[in-house]
Fold this protein.
Amino acid sequence: MRKPAETNTIPRPPNAYHFDTLSAAKALQAAGFDQAQAEAVASAIRSGQGELATKADVAALRGDLAGLRSGLDGQQADLGGLRADYAGLRAEVGAIKWVLGLVVALNIAILVRLLLA
């Protein structure tokens, strides 16, 4: 079995895309750029490729967003329950205020009667 020939290539990161700078520079020169301008543009495009998102990056981001969305849905459901609890507590506090007002009024009436008797 033959051993593959070794090459002197630098391994690319998995998210790096191949961009033929020589072909791009030649195309830019054909469009009217001088050689220095064409090389500069091709080099700038090549250096900016490390920041491109891959399909896997987009899929991971979509998954994260779906998780956040479901978490927010759960939080909204919890908030709905809290609102119902709060409304119930307000009703109870209103009833307690009414009863306390009645008790105070009865105590005042008893006190007035005792003082006038």
Remarks:
- DSSP finds three helices and no strands in the chain.
